[in-house]
Amino acid sequence: MAGFRSLARQVRDPRCDLALRRYSLRKCLERFAPYGHRATWDHLCSRAGFDPEDRSVDPARLVAALDELEEARAVWLAYEVEFAERRRKEKHDGLRRPGSVDDWHRLTWGGFGVAWCDDPRVHPREPLAEVLRRLIAALEREPGTACPVCRGERLMWRDDLDHEPSTGPVCTDCGILVPRPVLTPGALADARRVRLLVSA
Description:
The structure is a single chain. This protein has 200 residues and is mainly alpha-helical. The chain has one domain. Helix content is 50%, strand content 4%. It has seven helices and two strands. The chain has helices at 4-12, 18-28, 37-48, 59-92, 100-107, 128-139, 185-199; strands spanning 155-158, 168-171. It has a two-stranded antiparallel sheet.
């Protein structure tokens, strides 16, 4: 099975036919898809300016989409290296019990669904790398009351997500499943109340 870098080379290779280049970009999302496969594909297509169903995409647009994906992947891989180093140091210092960020991180290892968007058509508009930088910054500071990506405060608890965890606070502005560790207990409670009000 080809890895991300091998697939990326195929996307860039002008000797490959267009169908293979498009297919290889889609396969890259099996290795790294911050919003989930379908939402990340929709995001890349809209940012690079081609329709998700277009079978004869301008190769330059495919490469532009790949460039955005690779930049975001570099941001996430750097975070994972820092995360692993921090955990190693904590274990060395006797802190064996992981915290809530660690629990969340274990579910997103490799970058799949880091900023899960259950509706593939609703996702942040900013470049993927910027979204991940905002998310990582939020994970490294004290919890807040708003979405770390768009700063929206309209969070709604969902119990039916097609992801693990399958429940949690979703930003109604940008569509991401907000990681619980970045929110205060009060913000989580408010999101749960919105769920109760909507379902009532």
